[in-house]
Amino acid sequence: MDLGLTDRKAIVCASSRGLGRACAAALAREGVHVVVNGRSAETLDRAAFEISSGAKGSVTPVVADLNTQEGRAKLIAACPDADILVNNNDGPPPGDFRYWSDADWHLALNANMLVPLAMIRELMEGMKERRFGRIVNITSAMVKAPRAVMGLSTAARSGLTAMCKGLSTDLAPFNVTINNMLPERFDTDRQKKMAELAMAFRKITMEEARAEIAESIAAKRMGDPAEFGDACAFLCSAQAGFITGQNLQLDGGTYPGLI
């Protein structure tokens, strides 16, 4: 299927690795000119080179810290007329509600709610003028199935979800969509970190920790980041203009609810 994205322009935040990188790679293969982003020049340059090898569109690396106003300005200056924005950022670690400080809350709310909203605010007017825009937020399965241990992440991303639901109705008449992708247990560095935490707390091996993660998923395996990237590319496609304000769960069938 031709997704109708040739020569479109995209900013994919936090895309030097993991799910962000998978989204950037999928879009670049479809002919999108992609700005990729990360804080480590070495890691980002390597990712940009590897993504370029299978790309029909150009890949431009921009080293910037999204969590600062200066970093966001640098990223937007590299592609001020982006047709596509994929919001992504590191999530806070698990923890105990009793011990989270005000500083912990401020960091989480900034990174996972305020930063993506700031990126949307800067780019949406141009999308409206051009009558084409696709905004995808990478959030978390725990937006719909919260667990207290991931409360920092869930609270911030739920706030982003609520704000974007309201924005989606305002932007829909201009062919600008906002959707959220809710991943659970994809085989990325974050799952490696979660496995390492399980190893430390429960005194088990990496193989045992990874097996437990896979067993917790209905599909009995972790997701492939490429699967996630391809789903993102479709949400950004010309064909997806009637899909907006939605939360797409990518969890191997694990979520037990109806809605």
Biggest sheet: strands, sense, closure?
A: 7 strands, parallel
Strand content bin: 5-15%
Distance N to C terminus: 29 Å
Helix and strand element order: EHEHEHEHEHEHHHE
What would you say the CATH architecture of the largest domain is? Answer: 3-Layer(aba) Sandwich
Determine the oligomeric state from the structure: single chain
Please estimate the helix content. 40-55%
Count up the helices.
8
Bulk shape: globular
Kindly state the number of beta strands. 7
- Average the pLDDT over all residues and give the rounded result: 96
Secondary structure class reads alpha/beta
Tally of individual domains? 2
Q: The CATH topology of the largest domain, please?
A: Rossmann fold
Low-confidence stretches: none
CATH class of the largest domain: Alpha Beta
